[in-house]
Design brief:
By secondary structure, this protein is an alpha/beta fold. It has 2 domains: 4-30 and 85-292, 3-Layer(aba) Sandwich (Rossmann fold); 34-83, no CATH class. It has 9 helices and 12 strands. The strands form 4 sheets. Strands 6-5-4-7-8-11 form a 6-stranded mixed sheet, with helices on both faces. Strands 1-12 form a two-stranded antiparallel sheet. The protein is elongated, with a radius of gyration of 23 Å.
């Protein structure tokens, strides 16, 4: 894990990044408390939508008196409701997210950017930490500090095959769900993507990765340590084994991308090398996971 000074710097940079990039909050109509984003109902904004017949109980301030003078019938002017969207950030704290320092930093950069972007848009923000079957809600006053980051550094051993348990996290209906996860688990993507989109929610995935995952420098006799279970494996790596690994890795993310299109959940993989801005331009911007402000 990065030290506290580095984490403070990452938070500061995230606020700067949120001035230039944003989560895709403008792409849908929202339901929620009064705010600045277009809602699904009628409200008091300046964005005129339509007319309808006046009914008992309606606000008489919205009666269209000019139409009444012409027709003798009461009708209402409808304006688009302005609301605050709900953004729920789901942060995978599996060991593989922090396998090396560059990937740990990129994972935290994505987390802090998602928080800063949502807050910059005046959204209501919730943060969930996910690790195998467990989840934990971090309240807003807490995630603004650093004490909760100790949850990431725990040495608790887990099963390496378990994906984040998004299905049991108490997500709000119609929220935007931002999953920050490297997706390095063998489970098929369908169940997780269904959980991201349940109850009318909109999901998106920010997936950090290290280049050594795609093209590892393994040669000869190697000792492997499972980042979740801590189990050690000794294996001789030859060119045939390396080719099978690269093929399996490529096919794994091809399945994720195909499933994300089926469920309409934008997915962008973000490399841990290069600047934060450069890393977003490779996939996150073209796929619509992130937009220019």
């Amino acid at each position: 894990m990065p030290d506290t000074d580095t984490i403070d710097l990452l938070r500061t940079r995230a606020r700067h990044h949120a001035e230039h990039f944003t989560l895709p909050l403008r792409d849908r109509n929202w339901r929620g408390k009064t705010g600045e984003h277009a809602g699904t109902g009628s409200g008091s904004s300046l964005d005129f939508q339509d007319h309808r017949v006046y009914l008992p109980g309606d606000d008489p301030r919205h009666i269209n008196w000019q139409a009444y003078a012409r027709s003798g019938q009461y009708s209402l002017k409808l304006y688009r409701e302005e609301v605050r969207p709900v953004v729920e950030i789901l942060f995978d704290i599996s060991g593989s997210m922090f396998a090396d320092q560059p990937k740990a930093i990129r994972s935290l950069e994505l987390l802090f950017f998602a928080i800063a972007s949502a807050e910059f848009s005046a959204a209501m923000v919730s943060l969930f930490l996910l690790k195998d079957r467990r989840w934990k809600l971090i309240p807003r006053p807490t995630y603004s500090g650093q004490a909760w980051l100790a949850e990431i550094g725990t040495d608790q051993v887990t099963e390496s095959s378990l994906p984040p348990n998004v299905a049991e996290a108490p997500l709000k209906p119609r929220s935007l769900r931002v999953l920050v996860s490297d997706l390095l688990y063998p489970a098929e993507p369908d169940s997780l993507l269904r959980a991201l989109t349940r109850e009318g929610g909109k999901g998106l995935v920010l997936a950090p990765f290290a280049e050594t995952e795609e093209d590892p420098p393994w040669r000869g006799n190697c000792e492997f340590a499972d980042t979740e279970s801590r189990i050690l494996h000794h294996r001789r790596v030859d060119s045939s084994l390396l080719l099978r690994y690269r093929t399996a890795y490529r096919d794994h993310f091809a399945r994720w991308k195909a499933a994300s299109r089926r469920y309409q959940v934008p997915l962008g993989r973000i490399p841990s090398t290069g600047s934060f801005e450069e890393s977003l331009r490779s996939e996150a911007l073209p796929s619509g996971v992130i937009q220019l402000s």
